[in-house]
Design brief:
Layout lengths: L35 H4 L15 H4 L17 E4 L10 E3 L1 H6 L5 H6 L2 E4 L8 E3 L5 H9 L3 E2 L2 H28 L1
Parallel strand pairs: 1-3, 2-4, 4-5
Length: about 180
């Protein structure tokens, strides 16, 4: 019966520091004589000290003029003088600005567009985009309306999706030719 049992090929793991007979026992237990690694585990990111040689210390400083600037995309500026090509009583939206080639479709995808007050307005407009106080005053003086931004943020999201769809359609048409 005992002859028919399979032989065990795998050796059991050496248990470090469990006496002379274990093969890795007694004095240093295979860790060498002295030093940090012989006494305990060393952290994975440890490099000799907390700060002096650490990864953070080796990274370059952010120097120069742009170190206090935000990393986000800046708003695209559309001045009032560019809106004069639009007909009177038109709603100024992202789609309208793209259709009239005042901004590109890529700029419209970013979505950060602001109307500023450089130039004169002779026509009445209905503005549904973020606008400066000076530009809003000029549009109201010309007989136009400025709607609050909270009301049309949902509409703006829908417009961005529509613009993205139009771009995809244009790309597929170009690739099919």
């Amino acid at each position: 019966m005992l002859e028919k049992l399979p032989k065990t090929v795998e050796k059991s793991k050496k248990r470090v520091g469990r006496g002379h007979g274990s093969g890795k026992g007694a004095h240093t237990s295979g860790r060498g004589q002295k030093g940090q690694k012989s006494r305990g585990s060393v952290g994975l990111m440890f490099e000799g000290t907390k700060m002096r040689k650490s990864l953070i210390k080796r990274m370059p400083f952010l120097r120069g003029k742009g170190k206090f600037k935000s990393l986000g995309a800046k708003a695209i500026i559309v001045n009032l003088k560019f809106l004069e090509i639009l007909p009177a009583n038109t709603e100024i939206t992202l789609n309208k600005l793209v259709k009239m080639n005042i901004i590109t479709s890529d700029q419209a995808k970013l979505g950060k567009i602001k109307i500023l007050g450089d130039g004169e307005v002779t026509k009445a407009f209905i503005v549904k985009l973020p606008i400066s106080k000076k530009a809003a005053g000029k549009i109201k003086k010309a007989g136009g309306k400025v709607l609050e931004t909270e009301k049309f943020k949902a509409e703006e999201k829908v417009e961005k999706k529509e613009i993205a769809k139009e771009i995809k359609v244009k790309k597929t048409k170009k690739s099919s030719k």
